[in-house]
């Protein structure tokens, strides 16, 4: 992304309002991110953010249950987790809502641990690693970036995830270094 210079800012301020409106519409038509950002920041605000949240939840579900039959099953799950995390990253980039980011990560982890935890601990460690990284991200978000009151909302789920990871995948350094509970 290019750095915005002082001259560039002054040039933008000199553009007539009608021309700026045309430019914003042109950019919004070509970029979903810009379109969503304008909706969340200026137009529909909370309604647009809630719609994007629900859309992201649906995409997470879609990625988790559209697994490839090619190759090892664990590799397919890891790929699906990666795609779901990209959706969460997009949501967070557009909205900046850390609380909802934690909700989405928790939804993803809950689905994976509920449906696929029996597949942990095999020789295909990409699944274990991806799950450990995602759990660590939620743990850091809840303990360091959100208000401490939110810790109560996620504590039981996080402890459950940590217990499963430690019991099945403790041979991976990332998981070994995670706390046993919070």
Task: Give an overview of the whole structure.
With 182 residues, this protein is mostly helical. It is 77% helix and 0% strand. It contains nine helices and no strands. Helix 3 (32-43) runs antiparallel to helix 4, helix 4 (46-65) runs antiparallel to helix 5 (73-95) and helix 7 (125-145) runs antiparallel to helix 8 (151-169). The longest helix has 23 residues, at 73-95. The radius of gyration is 20 Å and the shape is elongated. It starts with 5 loop residues before the first helix and ends in a 6-residue tail after the last helix. 24% of the residues are buried.
Topology overview:
Layout: H1 6-13, H2 17-30, H3 32-43, H4 46-65, H5 73-95, H6 98-116, H7 125-145, H8 151-169, H9 173-176
Helix pairs in contact: 2-3, 3-4, 4-5, 4-6, 5-6, 5-7, 6-7, 6-8, 7-8
């Amino acid at each position: 992304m290019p750095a915005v210079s002082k001259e560039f800012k002054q040039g933008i301020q000199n553009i007539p309002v009608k021309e700026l409106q045309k430019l914003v519409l042109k950019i919004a038509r070509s970029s979903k991110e810009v379109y969503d950002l304008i909706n969340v920041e200026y137009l529909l605000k909370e309604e647009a953010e809630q719609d994007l949240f629900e859309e992201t939840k649906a995409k997470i579900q879609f990625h988790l249950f559209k697994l490839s039959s090619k190759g090892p099953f664990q590799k397919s799950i890891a790929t699906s987790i990666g795609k779901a995390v990209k959706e969460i990253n997009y949501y967070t980039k557009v909205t900046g809502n850390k609380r909802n980011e934690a909700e989405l990560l928790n939804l993803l982890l809950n689905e994976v641990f509920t449906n696929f935890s029996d597949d942990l601990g095999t020789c295909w460690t990409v699944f274990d690693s991806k799950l450990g990284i995602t759990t660590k991200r939620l743990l850091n978000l809840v303990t360091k970036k959100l208000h401490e009151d939110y810790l109560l909302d996620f504590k039981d789920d996080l402890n459950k995830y940590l217990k499963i990871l430690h019991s099945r995948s403790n041979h991976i350094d990332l998981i070994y270094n995670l706390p046993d509970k919070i």
